[in-house]
Amino acid sequence: MKSLVLTEPHKLILQQRPVPVPGPGEIQIRVKAASICHTDFFTLNGEYPGCKYPTVLGHEFSGIVEQCGQGVKHLKPGDRVACLGYVYCGTCPSCRRGLQNGCRRCIGIPFHMDGAYQEMICIPAVIAYPFDELLSFAQASLIEPAANGYAAADRAAIHAGDNVVVIGPGPIGLLALQAARFRSPASLTMLGTRRERLELASKLGATEVINVGETDPCAAVMDITDACGADVVILCAGTEDAWDLAGRLPAPYGRVVVEALPPTKNTRWSVPVFDFTSKSISYAGVSGYTASQFEATLESVQSGKIDVASLITHRFALEDYKEAFETSEKRKGGAIKVVFEIGKDRFNPISYQALNNLSGTIWAAKDNILRVLGVKDLD
Ligand SMILES: [Zn+2]
Ligand SMILES: [Zn+2]
């Protein structure tokens, strides 16, 4: 099978590898779609602490079950599945409390095991969840990042009537925004710098969008919140400016949830201690999601409460990985989510080049029309 192997930092090679065989409790999946994540670049650059090499990137993926190992009950060959981006032990104190993303023996993809930028993968069946036929494989690959956004909204404990601010209209920010929206906030404000992303945030449910390059964001948030400040700030941008801004927006008893990777693993940022204590502000980090948050996200995506289709702007065959990574990293053609469609004919001009040039509107329209018509994805 074809496998895109990261042999060492900065070195990606498309290799032929033997097809993995599922062990007890495992399933073998034919990968259909895997989307590129910001974390991939962190790993590509050798910035992720403790990452094994060689490895195969790709922790946001979906596919079809080909084979089930011994003892697998809840899945069968032919099932369409989306998967967690990590494996948990199920028995440690965190797992027993349902906080699987805090698992003491967590096996992260691709840091400790190979990911999905390859034609086949074997994973423990417990991390795979079946999804319905109306969701395309590309959309299903975005359930994983959507679960991160969902977890951020959960971590912020948003109540109906809260004033919520999301900083950073990247993929996770746009997904967290949607997860916050259906918790009925009084206002839902997106702060960012790129006009097209802010327009998309409006379309996805932001009640206000502020371009921080043009408008003073603190004054704008005070205006929107009747001079109270934000009850919740979800930080989805990993810059010092964004971190600094997040600390200046909360109302008394406000919560700042940080769902962003800093530029490097050694980055240190300062906290405005006086505001932090005098206004009783809480700061909370969030990394990943629990199994039940993933399941809830899957349901929200399937029912249309979270729109992932609008985020998919580009698709590539695995063979065209250089172009795919460049498109994602440099946000060429307004790229938001770049998805590998694995096992499809890369030379089909309708599938790739032509539609990529028209960018995401066309992909989203195609997926949404099929969905409204109730036509199952034809892969
Ligand atoms: Zn990711
Ligand atoms: Zn555990």
Task: Write structural notes for this entry.
The protein is α/β, with parallel strands linked by helices and 379 residues long. It contains 13 helices and 17 strands. The strands form four sheets. Strands 3, 4, 5, 8, 9, 16 and 17 form a seven-stranded mixed sheet that branches. Strands 12-11-10-13-14-15 form a six-stranded parallel sheet, sandwiched between helices. A two-stranded antiparallel ribbon has the order 1-2. Helix 5 (171-181) links the parallel strand 10 and strand 11 (187-192). Helix 4 (143-155) packs across helix 5 and helix 4 crosses helix 10. The structure holds zinc ion (2 copies).
Brief rundown of the structure:
Helices cover 30% and strands 24% of the residues.
Itemize the secondary structure elements and their pairings.
Elements: E1 2-8, E2 11-16, E3 26-35, H1 38-44, E4 61-68, E5 80-83, E6 86-87, H2 93-96, E7 107-108, E8 120-124, E9 128-130, H3 137-141, H4 143-155, E10 163-167, H5 171-181, E11 187-192, H6 195-203, E12 208-211, H7 217-224, E13 230-235, H8 240-248, E14 250-258, H9 273-278, E15 282-285, H10 291-302, E16 312-316, H11 321-329, E17 337-341, H12 353-358, H13 360-373
Parallel strand pairs: 10-11, 10-13, 11-12, 13-14, 14-15, 16-17
Antiparallel strand pairs: 1-2, 3-4, 3-8, 3-17, 4-5, 5-9, 6-7
Residues 88-89, 92, 94-95, 103-105 line the site of one zinc ion.
